[in-house]
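Progress note, sequence design subtask.
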């Protein structure tokens, strides 16, 4: 994770970030930025308006975790780190390490 790059450059869609959880559950979330405000996003038959200074977060595994579809856009101040590199990857279904992902840039 890279706190330095995150503070120097504004968030951009497609980046993977660590963010404070606005809902219940874990204190921090690892999510992908789907949109950065001001923007309009159509997703799952619903339209979202993302105001300036806020971002819309999505889970890469959308069936397994809370994201902005549940709690709405989050303020950019809730974004903490931008992830840069995969250091560990576990396949729960096959119960094995995904060696091919380790070391990949995000």
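Output:
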């Amino acid at each position: 994770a890279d706190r330095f790059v995150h503070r120097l450059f504004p968030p951009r869609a497609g980046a993977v970030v660590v963010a404070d959880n606005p809902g219940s559950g874990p204190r921090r979330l690892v999510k992908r930025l789907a949109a950065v405000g001001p923007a309009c996003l159509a997703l799952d038959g619903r339209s979202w308006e993302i105001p300036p200074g806020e971002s819309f977060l999505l889970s890469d595994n959308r069936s397994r975790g809370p994201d902005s579809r549940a709690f709405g856009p989050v303020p950019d101040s809730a974004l903490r780190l931008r992830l840069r590199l995969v250091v560990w990857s576990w396949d729960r279904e096959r119960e094995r390490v995904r060696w091919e992902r380790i070391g990949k840039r995000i």
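The radius of gyration is 14 Å. Work on this subtask will continue into the next period as scheduled.
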